[in-house]
Amino acid sequence: MLLPFFNSILIISTGLAVLSVPISTVESTIQVWPKPRTFSWPQPQATLLSPTFTISTPNQIHLHLSSAIKRYLNLIQTEHHIPLVPPTLNFTTSTPPLQTLLVSVSDLTAPLHHNVNESYTLTIPTWGPANLTAETVWGAMRGLETFSQLVWGDPLRVAVGLFIWDAPLFAHRGVLLDTSRNYYPVEDILRTIGAISVNKMNVFHWHITDSHSFPLLVPSEPDLAAKGSYGPDMLYTPYDVNRIVQFGLEHGVRVVPEIDTPAHTGSWAEAYPDIITCANMFWWPAGSKWEDRLASEPGTGQLNPLNPKTYEVLKRVINDVATLFPEPFYHAGADEIIPGCWKADPAIQSFLSNGGTLSQLLEIFVNSTFPYIVSLNRTVVYWEDVILDANNKVSTTALPPEHTILQTWNNGHNNTKKIVSSGYRAIVSSADFYYLDCGHGGFVGNDSQYDNQTSGTSGNGGSWCAPFKTWQTIYDYDITYGLSKEEANLVLGGEVALWSEQADPTVLDARIWPRASAMAETLWSGNRDETGKKRYAEATDRLNEWRYRMVRRGIGAEPIQPLWCIRNPGMCNTVQSAA
Ligand SMILES: *[C@@H]1O[C@H](CO)[C@@H](O)[C@H](O)[C@H]1NC(C)=O
Ligand SMILES: *[C@@H]1O[C@H](CO)[C@@H](O)[C@H](O)[C@H]1NC(C)=O
Ligand SMILES: *[C@@H]1O[C@H](CO)[C@@H](O)[C@H](O)[C@H]1NC(C)=O
Ligand SMILES: *[C@@H]1O[C@H](CO)[C@@H](O)[C@H](O)[C@H]1NC(C)=O
Ligand SMILES: *[C@@H]1O[C@H](CO)[C@@H](O)[C@H](O)[C@H]1NC(C)=O
Ligand SMILES: *[C@@H]1O[C@H](CO)[C@@H](O)[C@H](O)[C@H]1NC(C)=O
Ligand SMILES: *[C@@H]1O[C@H](CO)[C@@H](O)[C@H](O)[C@H]1NC(C)=O
Ligand SMILES: *[C@@H]1O[C@H](CO)[C@@H](O)[C@H](O)[C@H]1NC(C)=O
């Protein structure tokens, strides 16, 4: 059999080429992304993976574990990843091919909920079966992923003589996808959940509805999607939702639904014009000040908190969503309430002229919905605006911290601090670091900024949150920066976010990956080495390798460097390696 050039190098077991390679390079040739918490591999070696290799478990049949084992066995046998830099580790023919991976789970009953134990240990001895042990099915899935990344080549090889103990630093590690501004078919969502899983993240935050379209077919309010979606082929039926939720369970990924209210609801007006204020108006009336706009972007409409019918419709939606999504977190939105939109309504005008305030309006809305969501046994997630917005915010007595989590997106770590110092748990999605859509230009038309020929920054790279967030920006963000230990304990984790004004399936993968992988590692095992220094230099090589592996697995992740850099390790760095 004719081996490719780099495979034949593997077989060299001694000699100058091997001896001159520094240990760090040896480690970096076989990659696991995100990097495990501890990885002991005193003498890097590899052996063949037996052609009859199997994964077996002494446990009883568990639906999701069985499907994960089947999936990984198939992946391992068919992937044949070829590392970009030939591994210089010792390939031993004296040890027999690896025949078996044993998977043992202590607690088969733990549901896939926030804070579930995802730890695992993986031992691959030089002789005998490999052993993966985990407290839960979900931890076993993380360990199976690690094992799959230790297999490569054709014929298949596997790293041996190693021990890994691994567990995440943060319990909540997610990707937000907005399916309202532009529509994504179910297959694209499934591929995204699969990619979330292989990066050892565990949350798909599904921002389903917004002002632009209402693609969710809610059984007791079918008109919302029938009239508010982009069309009958651009919606999600209960069957679709179930497929997505089940796919998530098979991959250890929670599907957290967001029905954003009371703002971002223009699309509801197609079915119920009377419950929406300022629907279908021009978002920024000619000649008016920015403060008097009707929406944060084109696409107006907010639920009217003074109309009893609002709550009849909304409660049916909430109830159906809780049925469709078994997940204990329910995201209720509450971001970017724009005063001008509510002020366009006559009933609200008289409420305000009789001494009522915008914040009272929001509190009426929250008091009419939050207890109902809690009664469905849900923890309610809101965007930070609900208590931090300058004009529309509720008093914290309306939102008891035991039932409330706040997701931050403004002002970097300052707002994270405000949230946790008020006693709330926080999910970090700082737009300065974690928004994947930024820096792609504005989407509004007829923009006079472009009249000027003088400035290269017309439109500030275009978007309100420009510039583009590089993978390094994401990798190096410390989500508990500036917090006390007690405050840091209230930070559940983070989510990168893809808002879809300028994204749809054609660009989905490249807009998310591999930048989301950067957050995945930082929240799993950190962004620092054993000495406490930021490890972005060696992470570059590892992320390169991982990006190519994701591409082979069908995820269209964008490149982070020219191939030349990967073939010439270290040569593209700003500073030459000291070693
Ligand atoms: C490969 O094996 C030789 C001989 O046992 C040893 O000297 C060398 O250090 C090993 N190389 C690595 C990378 O472990
Ligand atoms: C694998 O791990 C389990 C659980 O820790 C242990 O009981 C078993 O002896 C191990 N098996 C091997 C072959 O090391
Ligand atoms: C997870 O399970 C492992 C193995 O049983 C245990 O050692 C560890 O303490 C658990 N972790 C947490 C955070 O409970
Ligand atoms: C409420 O949800 C929790 C999980 O968050 C679950 O353990 C509990 O059984 C649920 N209670 C009811 C009454 O459904
Ligand atoms: C909302 O509910 C909270 C807590 O029950 C209460 O303190 C507050 O007065 C209510 N606000 C309004 C506007 O009804
Ligand atoms: C955070 O607050 C500090 C102190 O007020 C301020 O200097 C800084 O600009 C703020 N950062 C952001 C991102 O808003
Ligand atoms: C573009 O904006 C200008 C004002 O700057 C306005 O006069 C014109 O009508 C707009 N054009 C279109 C096509 O909307
Ligand atoms: C164009 O640039 C000039 C000089 O910097 C500035 O005064 C003017 O306001 C700019 N016009 C627009 C439409 O941005």
Automatic annotation (TrEMBL):
Residues 170-526 form the Glycoside hydrolase family 20 catalytic domain. Pfam families: Glyco_hydro_20 (PF00728), Glycohydro_20b2 (PF14845). The active site is at E336. Gene3D superfamilies: Chitobiase/beta-hexosaminidase domain 2-like, Glycosidases. Residues 32-150 form the Beta-hexosaminidase eukaryotic type N-terminal domain. GO terms for biological process: carbohydrate metabolic process; glycosaminoglycan metabolic process. InterPro entries: Beta_hexosaminidase_sua/sub (IPR025705), GH (IPR017853), Glyco_hydro_20_cat (IPR015883), Hex-like_dom2 (IPR029018), HEX_eukaryotic_N (IPR029019). It catalyses: Hydrolysis of terminal non-reducing N-acetyl-D-hexosamine residues in N-acetyl-beta-D-hexosaminides. Residues 1-17 form the signal peptide. It comes from the Eukaryota. Its EC number is 3.2.1.52. The keyword Transmembrane does not apply. Belongs to the glycosyl hydrolase 20 family. This is Beta-hexosaminidase. It comes from Quercus rubra (Northern red oak). The lineage of its organism: Eukaryota, Viridiplantae, Streptophyta, Embryophyta, Tracheophyta.
